[in-house]
Design brief:
Structural class: alpha+beta
Number of strands: 8
Number of helices: 5
Radius of gyration: 16 Å
Distance between the termini: 49 Å
Shape: globular
Largest sheet: 8 strands, mixed
Strand content: 25-35%
Oligomer: single chain
Helix content: 25-40%
Order of helices and strands: HEEEHEHEEEEHH
Number of domains: 1
C-alpha cells in the first residue's frame, strides 16, 4: 500500500519553542505511520533549572493533514517536563510512544481527562496516567494554518486518576497547588 508523505512546516513552531525554552540539547525524528516525520526536542534546565522537557514538533501539522484538528485549525503538540534525575532514555522512548499513540488515536486531547497507561511512567512507581493540561511554559503559537496549543502531559498517580472519575479536574489541579506538589517529581506522594 502506498502512503503519501505529509510535509509539515516546522519553522514558526521551532522558533517559538527556542524562544520559550532555549536551544534543545538533542532532537530525534520519528516517522509516524509511514506518513509524517515528527521531532522530539529535548531541553535541559528548561523551563526551570533542574528540569528536563520533551516536546513534540509535527503532531499539530499531522492533525491538520489527517483532519482531526478543529475546523479553524486548532491542533496540539505534546510536552512532558520532569525533574532531571528522572530524565533518560526510558523516558524519551516513553514520550515517543506517546506521540505514536496520540497520532494513532486521531483525536485531540481533552483538558483534564486523564489518559490511562498500560505501564507506569518510567522512573515512577505508580504514575499510571497522564493528565493533559495547557502548558504554562510554552503556551500557544498562532500559525497561518491555525493555533497550536502545547499540551503538557502531567504524570499522575493511580489513585489520583481514579479520584478524577468522581471529581472535576480543577479540583485535582487545586489540590496539587495547595499541597505544593512538584509535578516533575515522579515519586511524589498522592494529593488525594
Amino acid at each position: 500500500m502506498f502512503r503519501k508523505s505529509i510535509e509539515v512546516d516546522r519553522g514558526l513552531l521551532d522558533r517559538h519553542l527556542r524562544a520559550s525554552l532555549g536551544e534543545p540539547f538533542a532532537t530525534m525524528t520519528e516517522r509516524i505511520h509511514k506518513t509524517v516525520d515528527v521531532d522530539a526536542y529535548s531541553f535541559v534546565d528548561a523551563p526551570h533549572d533542574g528540569e528536563a522537557t520533551l516536546v513534540s514538533l509535527g503532531l499539530a501539522g499531522y492533525a491538520r493533514a489527517m483532519k482531526f484538528a478543529t475546523d479553524d485549525g486548532y491542533a496540539q503538540e505534546l510536552q512532558m517536563t520532569v525533574n532531571q534525575p528522572f530524565f533518560g532514555d526510558d523516558l524519551i522512548d516513553f514520550f515517543i510512544k506517546s506521540m505514536w499513540v496520540y497520532a494513532r488515536q486521531r483525536t485531540l486531547l481533552t483538558w483534564g481527562l486523564p489518559m490511562t497507561l498500560a505501564v507506569p511512567v518510567p522512573g515512577s512507581t505508580d504514575m499510571t496516567a497522564l493528565l493533559p493540561t495547557p502548558s504554562s511554559a510554552i503556551q500557544v503559537c498562532t500559525e497561518p494554518a491555525g493555533t497550536t496549543m502545547f499540551c503538557r502531559l502531567v504524570p499522575i498517580r493511580t489513585e489520583e486518576a481514579f479520584w478524577l472519575r468522581k471529581h472535576q479536574p480543577a479540583e485535582l489541579v487545586a489540590a496539587l497547588k495547595d499541597k505544593h506538589a512538584d509535578l516533575g517529581d515522579l515519586k511524589r506522594d498522592s494529593v488525594v
